[in-house]
Specification:
This is Pentatricopeptide repeat-containing protein. The chain contains 33 helices and 2 strands. With 606 residues, it is mainly alpha-helical. The protein has a two-stranded antiparallel ribbon with strand order 1-2. The structure holds one DNA strand of 10 nucleotides.
DNA sequence: GTAGGGTTAG
């Protein structure tokens, strides 16, 4: 018997005009429903007799059938099953209204996991639905405001978990418009997603909204926002937030403090490790005990600040406190020693690590491998690389990239490309950085054509050039005295949605400086600053060098003063560039490397 | 299952 004739014998469904309820959803009159029909359909759905169901409904409008099911009060789970089946079978999208009415009824029945998995698929292949249309559908989906909030909440989470953070944020805002109450369970991942995408303004907006909407923020919410603020260098705001959270009855925990410490460590400011140490003292004073992570962050911070003795001191303190160094601690130490060119000590530490019962992981291997490479002992690196296979530590893309880069820098391009082939053979997929190393190698050789060919190969593998790729190209052009061509790449960078980094601008400035075009260099600086990027130490080094080369020592000195006033720490290069000139002008460096003006009355210029 | 730490390319 045919489904169509079952419901409305002798009438075409499509032509039927149904009365609408107040929400504008078509409704069946109870009189027009053949009571025996829905049980048949629900029975077929529950038994998953899809082909029978298909013959049953094929001449009916699938949407109308869905409405029929909804209004018959059938099990929402079966309605959902019919919904997904009909969409797949008839290659159509059921209306948002009906879809969310089903979700509403599922939520009423507390079948949350069904909703979760449905929404997961929904946000994955949702076509042109605007978030506002979806929210309109939610608002019409039923009577229970509370249940609608739950569905909205799950929708936000579904967006975020499927990396559609922007839509998640949009949904978060819409939820506010409708007054739906969201939970920290979805807001926290949203905050976290926004932080990962560097959308700190949105993070701050969402945070403010959460407070306004009286969503009870937990320690994770605060820590996520603190982390976001730290990532963009807003350390003061991050610190304030740590105070604010107490007002909301949430106490900072070890993760809050670790995040702050890491924030200070990553900042290129003068006295940053002093600040980091201050946070450490503060947390102890507040009764929060530092853990392994705290010490790992500090050790790494001291090494990156080129303060090996500080790092050693903290490492000792960690052990005195009874905290056991873990694999990551050793990785940090080994990396620190390698960057301090003390590869032998790094190897000794590796042995110490092994004898303490810890197993070097792939990062440990990559770190030491890199140490060997950077210290011109590529053969040692190869030995270590071969050891990995024996020990069953799988090399990853970074392992290969490190070696490939070393080969390239060693002008062994053939070996580099052979390694690229071998990694592919072993199922390790090259990354953009792998190609970047190879492109840089070819550029160094002056083989721009081959570099371009490699870019095509990347495109074929769906690997998009990143900002480093462009920086390499820019550097290569600048080295050939084609800074004017290089600067044109900036537009292309923006058009690809990439953001130039300090390196990008600094490389261009360096190019112009070496061409003696200080005016163009300072224009690049202006352009950089107009994008909200302040000159960093390298910027100053490049410009100071440019001025020195032109004999404009007054200007060079002015730049040095400017960088000191801005709290930037001149590095070894800065001093190497200007040492002679500065000494001539009556400045001598002190032990810490800061200049005293011995001829003037100025106090120490830090 | 939710928040913090380490390795590559410029």
């Amino acid at each position: 018997m045919h489904f169509k004739s079952h419901i409305f014998p002798g009438r075409s469904l499509q032509g039927t005009v149904f009365p609408r309820n107040k929400q504008g959803i078509k409704q069946f009159s109870s009189l027009s429903i053949d009571e025996s029909c829905t049980p048949t359909i629900t029975d077929l759905i529950s038994k998953q007799h899809w082909s029978k169901l298909k013959t049953h409904v094929q001449n009916a409008d699938p949407t109308t059938v869905l409405q029929q099911l909804l209004n018959s009060g059938a099990d929402p789970e079966l309605n959902l099953r019919y919904l997904t089946w009909s969409q797949r079978e008839f290659k159509l999208s059921q209306s948002l209204e009906l879809t969310f009415r089903i979700l509403h009824s599922l939520a009423l029945a507390k079948k949350y996991s069904k909703i979760r998995s449905f929404l997961d698929k929904f946000v994955k292949d949702e076509k042109d639905y605007s978030v506002s249309a979806v929210f309109h559908a939610i608002s019409l989906s039923g009577d229970s405001f509370c249940v609608k909030s739950i569905v909205a909440d799950m929708l936000v989470l579904a967006y975020v978990r499927n990396l559609k953070t922007l839509r998640g944020f949009e949904a978060f805002k819409r939820a506010g418009d409708y007054g739906f109450k969201l939970s920290v369970t979805s807001c926290n991942p949203l905050l976290s997603g926004l932080v990962k995408e560097g959308k700190i303004r949105d993070v701050e907006f969402a945070y403010g909204e959460m407070i306004k909407r009286k969503i009870e923020l937990d320690v994770i919410s605060f820590n996520t926002v603190v982390n976001g603020l730290c990532k963009v260098g807003k350390l003061n705001r991050a610190g304030d937030l740590t105070e604010d959270m107490k007002v909301w009855g949430v106490s900072p925990n070890v993760i809050t403090y670790n995040t702050l410490i890491a924030g200070y460590c990553k900042m290129g400011r003068i006295g940053k490790m002093h600040k980091a140490d201050a946070v450490l003292k503060e947390m102890v004073a507040k009764g929060v005990s530092p853990d392994e992570v705290t010490y790992n962050i500090l050790i790494d911070g001291f090494y990156k600040d080129e303060n090996a003795s500080g790092a050693t001191r903290v490492f000792g303190e960690m052990q005195r406190k009874g905290l056991k160094p873990n694999v990551m601690t050793y990785n940090i130490l080994i990396n620190g020693l390698c960057s301090d060119k003390k590869v032998d000590e790094a190897v000794a530490l590796w042995d110490q690590m092994v004898s303490s019962g810890l197993e070097p992981n792939v990062v440990t291997h990559n770190t030491l491998l890199n140490g060997f490479c950077k210290n011109k002992t590529v053969n040692e690196a190869i030995k270590l690389f071969n050891d990995m296979a024996k020990k069953g530590v799988d090399p990853n893309a970074r392992t290969y990239t490190t070696l490939i880069d070393a080969y390239c820098k060693d002008r062994r391009l053939e070996d580099a490309f052979a390694l690229r082939d071998s990694m592919i053979d072993r199922g390790v997929f090259p990354e953009v950085s792998t190609y970047n190393s190879l492109i840089a190698g070819l550029c160094r050789k002056g083989d721009v054509e081959a570099a371009m060919k490699l870019m095509d190969e990347m495109a074929g593998k769906k690997l998009n050039p990143d900002i480093v790729t462009y920086n390499i190209l820019i550097d290569s052009l600048c080295n050939r005295g084609e800074s004017r061509t290089a600067v044109k790449l900036l537009d292309e960078i923006f058009s690809k949605g990439l953001n130039p980094t300090h390196v990008t601008y600094n490389t261009l400035m360096d190019g112009y400086c070496r061409e003696g075009n200080l005016r163009a260099a300072s224009n690049v600086r202006k352009r950089m600053e107009s994008k909200g990027k302040q000159a960093n130490v390298v910027t100053y080094n490049v410009l100071i060098k440019g001025f020195c080369l032109k004999g404009k020592l007054e200007d060079a000195n002015g730049l040095l003063n400017e960088m000191l006033e801005r709290g930037l720490v001149p590095n070894r290069t800065t001093y190497e560039i200007i040492k002679e000139e500065m000494m001539v002008k009556g400045f001598v460096p002190d032990i810490e490397g800061h200049f005293y003006n011995v001829s003037g009355t100025d106090s120490k210029r830090k």
